[in-house]
Structure prediction request, 123 residues.
Amino acid sequence: MTVEAWPPGLPHLVGLAGSLGSSQLYEPAQTTRMDDGPGRARRRTLTVETPRSITLTLKRAEFELFLQFVRVTLNNGAKRFTAPVRLPSGRIGTRTCRIDGAVSEQDAGPHSRVTFNLRVYDW
Prediction:
């Protein structure tokens, strides 16, 4: 199964200043209670998914391309894709991502502002 790529006609998934952030940098450990003694904690998965809040301001043509990509290529956001994202170092790097939940849009005349949660694998 091929993983689709973020369209080159769209801006990198850096977001607007102040729109980036993460509610958690990693999945909390899964804890198992033991009958006797302290509980045991372990990672839930080997893959780390970091949630990122993204807000992009898109021109009309970019918004149409974004809409086509999310609805058709990603099957309404269900598929994973590779995209250029800002890494913890501040540099741009390509990572596998998926859109988590709904995408909202605000019409601002010649521009649209789209907001969504992005899950970045191995950020």
